[in-house]
Design goal:
This protein has 3 helices and 5 strands. It has one domain: Roll (Hypothetical upf0131 protein ytfp). It has helices at 12-19, 66-75, 111-114; strands at residues 3-5, 27-40, 43-61, 83-92, 100-109. A 5-stranded mixed barrel has the order 1-3-2-4-5. By secondary structure, the protein is an alpha+beta fold.
Length: 118
């Protein structure tokens, strides 16, 4: 599985801390269209909300295992409704001049975070 990240997990050291091992997989610069990165006064971490005219810059982490994704779901408090994991398509740049579109997952603000906006 591939994961688009835009907050604390952009830092490779934080990802290693969360996963519990040194992740050696590929990481690519990427962008996600149709979302906005939000910071709420009541919550100290960024989250995404769907917004058609916006784009979020981040990193695409390649080839995570199902176990890695379970660990990351716990880190993002998916069960508590802080974030939800959604399938998305991200634009990445590798060695060539043209971008590539890749299917991935990302964490979007869940019900708990959405409630901090009102």
């Amino acid at each position: 599985m591939h994961l688009f990240v835009y907050g604390s997990l952009v830092d490779p050291r934080r990802l290693d801390e969360v996963l519990g091992y040194h992740f050696l997989g590929e990481r690519l610069r990427a962008s996600l269209a149709g979302y906005e990165r939000i910071m709420s006064e009541r919550f100290g971490y960024p989250f995404l909300v769907a917004r058609a005219e916006h784009t979020v810059e981040g990193i695409l982490i390649m080839d995570l295992s199902p176990n890695d994704m379970d660990v990351l779901d716990r880190y993002e408090d998916v069960d508590a409704g802080m974030y939800t994991r959604q399938a998305v398509e991200v634009e990445t740049w590798g060695c060539g001049p043209s971008p590539t579109f890749v299917q991935a997952h990302t964490y979007v603000g869940g019900a708990q975070l959405q409630s901090t906006l009102s």
